[in-house]
Specification:
192 residues; seven-stranded mixed β-sheet; 7 helices
Amino acid sequence: MTIIVLAAGLSSRMGAGENKLLLPYCGKPIIQSVLETALSFSDRVIAVTGHERERMEDAISVLDVETVYCPDYMEGQRRSTLCGISATDDDDFAIVPGDLPLLSYSDYEGAAALLSSHSISRAVFSGIPGHPVMFREEHKKRILEFDGSLKEYLSMHDVGKYNGSIGTVLDADTPSRYRAIVSGDRDLSILH
């Protein structure tokens, strides 16, 4: 299983020019925490970089992860997702945004368990689709050739869903969500 962690985005919803993945969480950058959890589940983790490539790669250089630079990161998450998928070998893979520091090992286990009965699996928390999203390797070529979003691709398939933790959906997209993550506030209204 290769875990693809998306770390190429502009963090535009964070505002003030902040790169959300480099903000502190438990004494380290958010991206480092996300990658450490991914490494606890899989030996092969790929971080897809783009925006502020040098700063991002410096922040994650202490970890044993591969980095793949996506030169088209300005075109959106779809491009960085495709860069990451292209870098996988012929094995199963998972896609995880780099701004989910509360994602846990058990969330990865939940998704992986469903791959025995589904070729795609994903977390759901309170009815909200979350991550990781895991795929059997047979989907690699199909996704790379698909002319649409990953959301559209998923809507065309039988996706196994399991009840994940709040960490599968509570991302650090905005200042209020980041504050909720750091403070431990789990007011679910922040998710809507």
